[in-house]
Amino acid sequence: MRIVSVVGARPQFVKLAPVSRAMSSVHEHGGPVIEDIIVHTGQHYDPGLSDIFFSELQIPEPGIELDIGSGSHGRQTAGMLEGIERVLLDVGPDMVVVYGDTNSTLAGALAAAKLRIPIAHVEAGLRSFDRDMPEEVNRIVSDHVADILFAPTVTAMENLAKENLAERSVLVGDVMLDAIRFNSNLSAQRSEILSILNLENRPFGVATLHRAANTDSDRLLVLLDALNRVARDLLPVVFPVHPRTVSRIGTECPDWQPGPGLSLIDPVGYLDMIRLTDAASVVLTDSGGLQKEAFFLNTPCVTLREETEWPETVDAGGNVLVGAAPDRICEVVSQVLGELRDNGKQPSFSAEQYFGDGNAAGKIVNGIIDFVRR
Length: 374
Known about the structure:
Layout: E1 2-7, H1 10-25, E2 35-40, H2 51-56, E3 64-65, H3 73-91, E4 95-99, H4 103-114, E5 119-122, H5 134-145, E6 148-151, H6 154-162, E7 169-171, H7 175-190, H8 193-196, E8 205-207, H9 212-215, H10 219-233, E9 237-240, H11 243-252, E10 262-265, H12 270-279, E11 282-285, H13 288-296, E12 301-303, H14 311-315, E13 319-321, H15 326-343, H16 351-355, H17 360-373
Parallel strand pairs: 1-2, 1-4, 2-3, 4-5, 5-6, 6-7, 8-9, 8-11, 9-10, 11-12, 12-13
Helix pairs in contact: 1-7, 1-17, 3-4, 4-5, 7-12, 10-15
């Protein structure tokens, strides 16, 4: 059985890892031999966002690298679409697997659909209901052209049913929970990031910022100033800065400087990021993936958006949506820190209640095998 897995960005590498392991081991348990050809589009081409994840997550090296790089959404997606089409014509897979909601997801799904090759979409059914987000368009189109939709949550299944996609949908749980379970102990053993940054036995926050709605508008300076306020008034904040955000700061906010307590660092590897998130008192982010990782690690999350694809994290009390209002951001962080002082970092919710049993990858691989055999 021949599968092509299309990835291109950090969150997809994290999702791919447990599925890749499950594909590799299925033959040992009486299943078919699966040849999984990994196509890396190059959407994240910085070594800090790409190469290190393959080594840390124990993913086989990509069989094909397209090296598309950055560009406008249209240009980037077009380059990926052309490159993936060539690969699929050459390889002739039984199925194409796409992950998440990036331009790589969209390009992989469209290329396969045009060639009438079956498509599996991992992390299907997410909806922010904000069509201004490129990711929302990518995930909707990918769901509607895919043949089998692997949904991570009951909410995602409900979203798919409302769009008449229930017959193609399978509830499997979240592969990122699989990944956290596999890697959290490994991170505690191997990562030295807390020592390197002198954060051991100290309260601190972690911030990330990369979405276009926050970095390509006046919101960027507002949010940067809000992070300065949090770091100055409430607790030190470590800010691994996405290369795209670095570029936008240089062009849109050239006079801005990090204030006392706000430490800008280069992007870190997955194990280091897990370690930072696990040890942090609070996470401030606009990343969908980091919202969940914080939730899985029982770290309070303050989301710098007005909406989320993961309402379960909000409903459970592990995540608060604050938008870009500095006063609101500082107020919520202050409340979180007060609760931590009063109660400590005690689990107040169960990831399994919302995101499955931690064996999503195995269910996905079984679903792929059953579909291809049919």
